[in-house]
Amino acid sequence: MLSLISGRLFQYLMGANLNSSRIRMTTPILTSIVPGAGPLHSSAYFVGLYLPVEFQASPPVPLPELNLHPDRWPGHCVAVRSFSGYARDHNVVEEAEKLAVSLSRTPWGNSTNHPSKNAYSIAQYNSPFRIVGRVNEVWFDVECRSAGVETY
Fold this sequence. Notes:
Structural class: alpha+beta
Oligomer: single chain
């Protein structure tokens, strides 16, 4: 997993956008795994973060050479498992497997096939310089209606 924010995304936050706006970093940093999107059907990923409220209605347009694209998420439901430490390839996969096992025993067990471009996402809430007390989450998109859950 990425322990530091993507270089292009960091440039955008530091003012590499059409109106040179510096954008305050928000959490979580979200790394979404896209299965089979890479070469030879390997997984790929994309990194994102939420824009601060003052930029949400009209986000600064990134410089074209950054090749960044906005992603607006409609309201949806996610199943979440928290874990501590640094998000690394080995423990992220382990935590995703634990969440899948937990979900298999619930009404959401069959709802992880909910139409999504992502296999799962990792939310990282702390600076890479924070060593203790770190908070991370693994997220699976789930179908809200299958278990009688409502979203607003």
